Amino acid sequence: MDIRFTTHNAKIPAEMKEYMEGKLGRMEKFFSRILDMQVAVKTDKKDFVTVEITADANGVVLRGEQRDPDLRKAFDLALKVLERRIRRHKEYLIDRAQLKAHDVSFGYEDTAAQAEPESSYSGVRIEREKVVEPHPMTAKEAALQMELLGHSFFIFVDTDSGHPALVYRREAGGYGLLKIRA
Prior knowledge:
Keywords: Cytoplasm, Translation regulation. The protein is α/β, with parallel strands linked by helices.
């Protein structure tokens, strides 16, 4: 397993790097599908450290992120989040192998959004831009991938229709699915 470290306004002491590599090395024994891991360490203006651990488990991306003033504590907390997501993914794979699919409900509501005045949009600023390459999968698999990443939505290509789609977490609970006609 390959472990890469990246930093932004931060330095990782050698002993801390060894500690991280040791902890991450044990993850491979826990879940053998992990091919590589990336640890990103960032320090903000308030001297808080953000640690983001991303694992590639044979095409499935799992991520844990935490923020704390102490680097070791931020790493340990991020690792706990990642372990929880790996455990959830491992259970999913076991359930799927036993043909016990998780029941993911997709709710649809026909509610018209109340339009805001145009002036409220004048201050909209795009802070970050990402280019994504959506992969073919079912809506249930996309919902699981979204949960494993800790995101509130996930873009994918629906295997049934071949069209792009988006699954999202609803505020009222459950999941929603947007199908995009191309």
